[in-house]
Design a protein that fits this description.
Two copies of one chain form a homodimer.
Chain A lengths: L4 E7 L3 H13 L2 E7 L3 H9 L5 E2 L3 H5 L4 E4 L6 H8 L8 E4 L5 H7 L8 E3 L1 E4 L19 E4 L7 H13 L3 E4 L2 H27 L6 H6 L5 H7 L4 H10 L1 H24 L2 H20 L16
Helix pairs in contact in A: 4-5, 7-9, 7-11
Catalytic activity (chains A, B): prephenate + NAD(+) = 3-(4-hydroxyphenyl)pyruvate + CO2 + NADH
Pfam family, one (chains A, B): PDH_N
InterPro entries (chains A, B): 6-PGluconate_DH-like_C_sf, NAD(P)-bd_dom_sf, PDH_C, PDH_N, Preph/Arog_dehydrog, Prephen_DH
Amino acid sequence: MSQIYERVALIGLGLIASSIAHAARRAGVAGEIVGYARSAETRGIAREIELCDRITETMQDAVEGADLVILCVPVGVMGDVAKEIAPHLADGATVSDVGSTKRAVIAAVQPHMPGHIHFIPAHPVAGTEQSGPRSGFETLFDNRWCLLTPLPDTSDAKLETFTQFWRALGSNVDFMDPDHHDLVLAVTSHAPHLIAYTMVGVADDLSRVTDSEVVKYSAAGFRDFTRIAASDPTMWRDVFLTNKDATLEILGRFTEELFALQRAIRTGDGEHLHDYFTRTRAIRRGVIEAGQDTDAPDFGRGGPN
Amino acid sequence: MSQIYERVALIGLGLIASSIAHAARRAGVAGEIVGYARSAETRGIAREIELCDRITETMQDAVEGADLVILCVPVGVMGDVAKEIAPHLADGATVSDVGSTKRAVIAAVQPHMPGHIHFIPAHPVAGTEQSGPRSGFETLFDNRWCLLTPLPDTSDAKLETFTQFWRALGSNVDFMDPDHHDLVLAVTSHAPHLIAYTMVGVADDLSRVTDSEVVKYSAAGFRDFTRIAASDPTMWRDVFLTNKDATLEILGRFTEELFALQRAIRTGDGEHLHDYFTRTRAIRRGVIEAGQDTDAPDFGRGGPN
């Protein structure tokens, strides 16, 4: 793969930024990778593990001369970061982000962008429950989807270049309207996370069942929820606060459906339960056929192979 | 390991029974392993893969002469199976089961057991989303917990022997009161399964988001739910119908908590959300420290190592 950008600046050095650094290096698409994180500790770790070619002490230094700047910070601070870097951006640079919600990020970032800048909002749909500069790895985006929600006046040439960049990191790329993005992700990510957080919180809070029991007998389903509920609290707080409407809509549908199943349990309607549980199997097959999950039983956790 | 039982009969040849067969063979604890399944197709597969030493055409033939009989059928048919095998059980045999609920199984099975039989209810807390005779594997129970809920008049000697059997299969063994078992499992298994089924059902049923979108962007959390929601529909229907009270109690607590978090989202109470999400991380650490899950990010799905 040949170079796509001369200098890529990563603002924020968590799981996604550090994975971008590794994947961009693997692909050879960036002449130089520059990184900045607000926390001195994070910058220190990033230098120690040589995550980027250069770690700067200020945000300004990081973005100067970069032809691609990617904001990899929690959604709630995107606006402040955009405002701070705006005067220092190189002429004609592309600015992007990796936020899990798109309408709020656009509203926060776009007003600060000078006319010469090309802002292309993006969301790589990939991750793990880990966070921080050590958590990234070069294969994170392989065969996952990166959703771009370009604005109406985005230059075709800049968009094409940026699309090539994400493909070079291993991603498939799709384009979507920001509102639709937020609704789709409310279903496939935001609501499931809130539900997992809730279930783990309930288990932690029962007086008649001890935490030790919850932990010991977690292999029967619960442990999958604990993985999701171990995700970064700041990131997820911001996701819910900035995708309020879509998340609440899906949670409303969820509660309605849950009540219907609870009623079926209470009234002993086995047929309703069986039909429902049969239907949901098909979605799993789709996920595996689309290459979005392993088909090894139990995610291959010490399984047959 | 030396032989513990001369002949072990497995009634039903799904995931758990086939894993018992493999693990018992690995441990050399059974002189002979005999299997029976109601479906001719399942019996045919079991013979083809040489799952047991012998597959019988009738339930009666399977249990005759067995000093251990394990009922590995859905909870809803345990009573019928117990009734059918009762007259054919060997004198002094131990009968057990692997049902995910215990109070209902005891109520259904115990009345049919002749006085010379030792009925020891059991629940190996392990599994995958797969089912059928091909899905078993010898390591399924390694370092998982098998919960025994012995009845008040159970013979100490028979209980000790049966405990040794489960330990030989790789399990840790704990003892519990049946009602408490049903409550603990409602938290760690039954409620999480119903919630996962519900979430997958909702996603499948939205008119504004296509199934193809749900599948493509599932890597952001949803795909973990699809694994759980791919579990055997008959088994799970029976679990909910036979652990109604505890499941509904936990779902009630879950809904209460979910409403509180929804309110926090609606009112923009970021502190409440952040505190809640921070607390749930600790439980994940507990699960990993107890050896009940892998610490590889994202369950090791194509991760860094």
